[in-house]
Specification:
Layout: E1 8-13, H1 18-26, E2 32-38, H2 42-52, E3 55-57, H3 60-66, E4 71-74, H4 81-90, E5 94-97, H5 105-118, E6 122-124, H6 132-142, E7 149-157, H7 189-200, E8 204-210, E9 221-227, E10 232-238, E11 251-253, E12 257-259, E13 262-264, E14 268-270, E15 276-280, E16 283-288, E17 293-298, E18 301-304, H8 314-328, H9 337-356
Helix pairs in contact: 1-8, 4-5, 5-9, 6-7, 7-9
Domain GFO/IDH/MocA-like oxidoreductase: 135-285
Keywords: Oxidoreductase
Domain Gfo/Idh/MocA-like oxidoreductase N-terminal: 8-125
Amino acid sequence: MSNEARRLRVGMIGVGGVGRLHLEAYRRSAAVEVTALCDADPERVADAAAACGAAAYTGHRDMLMSESLDIVCILTPPASRLGIVADVAAAGRAILVEKPMATTRADAEEMRRLCAAAGVPLSYGASYRHLPALKHARGLIAAGAIGDVTLLREDFVGGRGPSSRMALPPWHYPEGGIGGSGMGLVDHGVHLIDAFAWLTGSPVTWASGRGNVSGAPLETEYAILGLANGATGHLLYEDGTWPTQLPAEGQFSWGASWDVDGYHPGGAWQAHPGSIHVHGTRGALRIFHYAHALYLSDAEGTRQITLEGDPAPDHFRAQIDAFACEVRNGLAPTSNADAGIAALAVLEAIYASGARNIRVEPQS
C-alpha cells in the first residue's frame, strides 16, 4: 500500500464524553484509523476499545511505547494536558489537542515551545471551523455578501432555574482559575472567541467582561470584544434561569448539539437551538451552527442558504481529516497553537477586566 493510500494511525487519550463523539466520528474517516485508546477509567476504555477494535491502555506512556502512531489526540480535561503534550512531543507524534488548549496561556505557550523543539506539529481543536454553517458563512462574509461586519454575537440564556447550574469539577478546571459550566464562557465561549476572529479574518484587540471562577458561586457571564477591523463581539451566558424563546422560534436540528440539558443527538425539533448572529453594513447572517442551517437577511428579505457537508458531530471527522492531510504532506497545521493561545489570551483579558472593572488588551 502506498504512503498516500495508507490511513494514518491515531491514538486517543481520553474517551469520556466528547472523546466518544470524536471516536465515532473518526471511525467514519477514510484518512485515519484509530488503533489505540487511553483512559484512566479501565472499564470505559475497555468498552470503547472493544467497540472499535483498538488496543486499550490506562496510561498514555504505555500507549506511546507500545504503539506505532502517527497522530495522538488529547481529549482529557484541560488541566491535565501540558504533561501529556510533553510526553507525546518527546515521542515524536503529531498532536491534536482539544479546546481550550490549557487552563492558562502560559501552559499553552509551553506546549507550543515543546512541540516546536521536538519538531512535531501541534493542532488546536477549533472544531467550529469545520461546521458547514460556519464555513459557508465565512465564505459569504469574505465575498462581501453582508458588507463590512460590525457586530457578532452569541448567547446562551436558559436552563431550569438556579438549581440547573452545574459547574465543571475542579479536576477539569482547578479551583481559583478559569472555570464555570459546560455552556459557559470558558468551556463553550472559547469556541466563539476563535470563531469571531476566524469568520472575519480579524483578531480580538481588546476585551472586557466577567467570567466564572472555578470553585466560586456561578453567576451570569459576559464579554465585549473589540476586533481589529472595528467590529464588536458580544457573548452572554446564563444557564441558571429559564429560556424566553417562543415555540415558533425553534429549528429542526439536523445536527448534534449541546445545551444545559446535555448532549442531543440531532434529527429532532429543538426549541432553543444555539445560533450566531453576524451583522454587517449590507446584511446579516443567522448561523445555526449545530442545527445545520444558515439564513441571510438583506434588502431583498430573508432567505435560507443551502449547505454542503454533514452536520455535527461530523465536524470532528472533518477536523481530523484536515489535520491528517497536513501531517501526511508535511504542512503546518492551519488551526495551530497560535489560535489556541490567542483564545486563552482573550479569556485571561476578560477575567482581568472583571477583576479590575476595566477594559484590558490581551497579551501577545
